[in-house]
Amino acid sequence: MLQACGLGRRKPGSDQWLIHGICMAVRPGDRIALGGPSGSGKTVLLRALCLLDPIDEGSIEWKGEPIRGDALPAYRKEVLYVHQRPALLEGNVEQNLGYPFSLRAHRGREFDRERIVALLDALGRDAAFLRKSNRNLSGGEAQIVALLRAIQLDPTVLLLDEATTSLDPATVAAAERLLDRWWSEAPGERAIILISHNPEQAGRFADRRLHMSAGGTVSER
Amino acid sequence: MDKPYIELSYWQVGLAALLILVNGGISLMLRLDIERRLLVAGFRTVAQLLLVGLVLQWVFRVGRWYIILGLLAAMTVVAGVSAVRRVHVRYPGIWLSSLISIWASSWLMGALAVFVIVPVEPWYSPQYAIPLLGMILGNTLSGISLGLDRLGGELGGSRPQVEALLALGATRWEAARGPLQQAVRTGMIPIINSMMVAGVVSLPGMMTGQLLAGVDPIEAVKYQIIIMFLIASGTALGTVGVVLLSYKRLFNDDHQFLYQLVREHP
Asked: CATH number of the domain that A174 lies in?
């Protein structure tokens, strides 16, 4: 489904490789945990996979086709990246969740409030949370909103960059249940790649474990 | 024939120049320690203005179109460079973006003035072309630099939001629109403000000049109105131009935000 071959990205303005020669395939239904020391290029790799940054070497193919130019927004809708630090827009939670549906890539779809309320319920929060302003959210709450904002769009591949790092243990468990539930809605169709520094989480969550070493190479464990 | 204004002798000018001593006195008394800067500023005022006067006198006397065009081009380049100098960010191509925007917008407005609105015969008549373009350039310059400065700040500060939108499937335009709008708005605020208070708080410079030269107040006002609208449109076009050129430079065809190209400039 998603195939990266010889993928490399240099540090901008220098010859140093951040990631180099990475080959990997993501198949439907994959639950991949991506581990490795800090600075080994995990974030760079996820950003490269959704083509948020230019790549200097190699290729990425989506369903057998290279992705270029104006195909990018529609591709990123399928291969959706959630930042390590959640970036919310001005406004309350509901406005943040509804905003993506105003984008051209999601035209024809509408914000499904009922679905969000059900998901919030699973996280132990009620609908009043939707009215909370982005300025009054804790770091963990903001991360929950960013996660909900992503999964409600039903991407095919979800790229999570330490998306549960700033959450307390109870919310981490809830977020994992949320991801489980979302993944099981369409078994064998959706894939998740999760960067995690927590081996237990990786063991719990993933069925494939990839390890990045310094120098930006990736190996299956 | 009597001139409609009082001609000044160099003695009279010198008398006014002595007023710099007032500033010097204040600086000494309050120990502001700016006497040296005052002295330099005073000398620069005199020297620069005399130099410009001599150049203009020569240009007016010769009156050849290519010399006037050359002078206008030089003024435009200086304005384009000054606009970037006041900006606190840099990215590759910023100088060219500024130059193209200021050139296209001010010359379009200048051409509109001398060919259509006024119209001047011949079109390059320095008495009109030089001050008209000068005023348009001066204002477009500040619009461009304010717009660029704001754009740099916005794109730096909102990089997470811009990237989050791109990651959610936004096109580069959808992701950048907020910062771009802010930048254009900021660039246009000063001219809107001066249009709001025109004639109420202070008399605009050109109108004051014409009044001193003995022109009928209503005639002076007509010119001032024309120039205000030329300046407003020039500023709008220049600001939009530089913001769009920057956008094209910082967001590539693959809808990626090339944030690493933007650098702080103290």
From this structure: 3.40.50.300
